[in-house]
Design brief:
Elements (H helix, E strand, L loop, with lengths): L4 E3 L4 E3 L9 E4 L2 H5 L10 H11 L6 H4 L18 E7 L18 H4 L8 H13 L4 E7 L11 H11 L4 E6 L8 H4 L4 E5 L5 H7 L5 H18 L4 E7 L7 H14 L2 E6 L12 H11 L4 E4 L6 H4 L1 H21 L3 H14 L11 H15 L3 H13 L3 H14 L6 H22 L3 H14 L11 H15 L3 H13 L3 H14 L6 H18 L3 H16 L11 H9 L6 H13 L3 H14 L6 H17 L6 H21 L1
Parallel strand pairs: 1-4, 4-5, 5-6, 6-7, 7-8, 8-9, 9-10
Antiparallel strand pairs: 2-3
């Protein structure tokens, strides 16, 4: 890791983490840094000797290198004066009030080392200036983590701000146990990611490792952070790191963590460890991944450093994962019709890869059109290209999606999914064209596009003169049995929904979820199904079941608890929750239908107006406006005919379809 730097709170510069902490290369002098008198650091003699040894094929400190878990995880040394630093590892504080078994007991910390215990802004600013003077152009990852907890240091917001000012394109992260009262500055800082170390889903199991901490306080920290992120529409990535031990690896405990993660809107990562007490149930990544696929789709699997392969331990992998997470969040924002939020996520992702700045006031399609040439030329990570293609497809830009996927095949010629991507490009292109032709009223052309798509995946032939509904009726069994690519199923669902065939669309989406259990839109699709069910139950006057379905839909999308115990009217309980927030259009219309069924006409009117507000370009905007006018008219008359609800729901079938398309596509 001689392309990286580790600086402790008191200015000590160890060789690196793990066994490397026993070797201090030098101690930085804050005064000398402030006065520009400090000798070179990243290009200084200590790191130069280490790099030269590696270039010559020798270990610089054999007695330590042979024991080092980091050894062999970095790229082969080729240069003595690198211009890009991989990781700047900063110990913001040496102090911590927890006494985790594999760390320093809280009561012993001050006796083992003297002050200063917290990094000063003067030390860090001097260090960052010095690195710039030495010609360091970019730092991939600035990570605040060390022997203590970074949040102990009250200057941490200033340390983060200084890091962003000197190296604006760096990924900046903090790892903390979160066992503190909530700190509102976190979501308003320049932080890109916060990793919360919480090893358990109940107070009892949590305290077995995080001795001296508080499970309730850590969860409340994340709950308030969730609310704050929603309020300010933050792109901050929050990850829950759950280390697996023999006392917290049971199904019920881990499934409880999955439910909590959904509620808190955080990314859950189950981590295997090498330390005493480690989980024996999940002794390999394969066993853990199998469990995650079944019970926790969307959760991640990692290992502590000592168990990682070189590719898994690279800084590039950390940055690539973060970019992918931001682009996945951008897709979620698009589906929720929060385009400003999507643009912020897109801008943050592009800042890290390919390293360009875009206006956060521009439209998504404008950003894609203007930035596409540079993206194709300069993107570092193949996964960035596939995620950008997904964003492009989400806004209906199939041309950009195809260009990005084609570039992906160029930069990753040996990609294991090469054939799949090639066929997906063709199928997606023709299915997107089919939707355009349907909207233009040209069904014969739509059938021809559909035929081209199905020829590639699942590889079936259809009559190009058939009626489009007949194509789905005849070909559906073969499509469900033989389709190779999940994206084909989701696009075919969009086509069938476009022609009003919701039953076929739901069947295709159900199969999509079976073949892609970790799909990022899994919860959105399940939520949409529940909303459909709620409307049908309301038509049948089964309001308790309709309320339960709506509650489950909200829970899937936002982690909102469906528990109405003690609530006199569960529908109004949820209504008060969704009106101030940015819900998906399909949920808003579903609530509106149930409101009409229960004769809550003012509530129905408010919901329809909310729908028009969040989906101003909905394909049936005029139909919704007419419904609002009818509700107003009947409210003023004071009499509502018995047929009113049936007539409105019949009218809403097309509106509901538009709402779902706005949500998913």
């Amino acid at each position: 890791m001689s392309h990286s730097l580790y600086v402790k709170a008191n200015g000590e510069m160890p060789c690196w983490d793990d066994i490397g902490e026993t070797l201090t290369l030098r101690t930085l002098d804050e005064g000398a840094l402030q006065d520009n008198r400090e000798l070179p650091i990243f290009h200084g003699i200590e790191l130069q000797r280490i790099r030269q040894s590696f270039i010559s094929g020798r270990d610089p400190h054999p007695e330590l290198c042979n024991l080092c878990a980091v050894r062999g995880h970095a790229a082969i040394e080729t240069v003595l004066h690198p211009r890009t630093m991989e990781v700047l590892h900063l110990e913001a504080s040496y102090l911590c009030h927890l006494s985790c078994p594999q760390c320093i007991p809280a009561k012993d910390r001050r006796s083992l080392k003297g002050p200063p215990y917290n990094m000063t802004t003067g030390l860090l600013e001097g260090l960052l200036r010095q690195l710039r003077r030495e010609g360091v152009e970019h730092i991939r990852f600035i990570h605040f983590e060390g022997r203590g907890d970074p949040l102990v240091n009250s200057r941490l917001p200033d340390l983060i701000e200084s890091s962003r000012r000197y190296f604006p394109r760096s990924l900046i992260g903090v790892t903390t146990h979160c066992s503190y009262p909530y700190m509102p500055w976190v979501v308003r800082s320049e932080l890109d990611m916060l990793r919360a170390s919480i090893d358990g889903a109940t107070p009892e199991t949590y305290l077995k490792y995080r001795v001296g901490g508080s499970f309730e306080r850590a969860i409340e920290f994340l709950r308030k952070l969730r609310d704050d992120r929603i309020q300010v529409r933050s792109a901050l990535r929050v990850e829950w790191k759950y280390i697996l031990f023999e006392w917290n690896d049971g199904d019920s405990e881990m499934q409880r963590a999955v439910e909590l993660a959904k509620e808190l809107q955080v990314h859950l990562t189950f981590m295997r460890t090498h330390t005493p007490g480690r989980s024996l149930r999940f002794s390999t990544d394969g066993k853990l991944r199998q469990w995650v696929r079944r019970f926790a789709p969307g959760s991640a699997v990692e290992q502590t450093f000592q168990l990682r392969s070189p590719s898994e331990a690279s800084t590039r992998a950390v940055v690539a994962d973060h970019v992918a997470a931001l682009l996945s969040l951008a897709i979620e924002r698009i589906r929720a019709c929060d385009h400003p939020g999507a643009v912020r996520c897109l801008a943050e992702a592009l800042k890290h890869d390919p390293g360009i700045s875009v206006s956060q006031t521009a439209g998504i399609s404008e950003i894609i059109r203007e930035a596409l040439p540079q993206r194709l030329a300069d993107v570092q990570f193949p996964a960035t290209l596939t995620w950008l293609a997904a964003v492009s497809r989400e806004i209906g830009d199939s041309a950009s999606s195809s260009a990005l996927l084609s570039r992906y095949l160029e930069v990753a010629p040996d990609a294991p999914d090469r054939r799949r991507v090639e066929n997906a490009i063709i199928a997606d292109h023709f299915l997107a064209l089919a939707i355009e032709r349907i909207r233009a009223g040209d069904h014969p052309a739509a059938v021809r596009c559909l035929a081209e798509a199905l020829k590639n995946d699942p590889g079936i032939s259809i009559s190009r003169t058939a009626d489009i509904r007949e194509v789905f009726r005849v070909s559906l069994p073969g499509i469900l049995a033989d389709t190779q690519f999940p994206s084909t199923l989701s696009w075919l669902a969009a086509v069938s929904r476009e022609i009003g065939d919701n039953a076929t669309s739901n069947t295709l989406l159900s199969t999509y979820l079976e073949v892609a259990p970790e799909a990022p839109d899994r919860n959105h699709i399940l939520s949409d199904h529940l909303v459909h069910a709620a409307v049908q139950l309301a038509v049948a006057k089964q309001f308790d079941l309709a309320h339960a379905a709506l509650g489950q839909a909200l829970h899937l999308q936002f982690g909102v608890s469906p528990d109405f115990v003690g609530t006199s009217n569960p529908f109004l309980f949820h209504l008060d929750q969704i009106l101030p927030d940015d819900c998906s259009p399909s949920i808003i219309v579903g609530f509106a239908c149930v409101a009409l069924a229960q004769n809550y006409f003012p509530a129905a009117r408010a919901l329809f107006r909310k729908y028009v507000e969040i989906a101003p370009e909905a394909c049936d905007r005029s139909r919704v406006d007419k419904i609002i006018t009818d509700i107003d008219d009947h409210i003023q008359r004071g009499v509502l005919p018995k047929t009113f609800f049936v007539r409105v729901v019949t009218s809403l079938r097309r509106v509901f379809t538009c709402a779902v398309k706005c949500f998913h596509y």
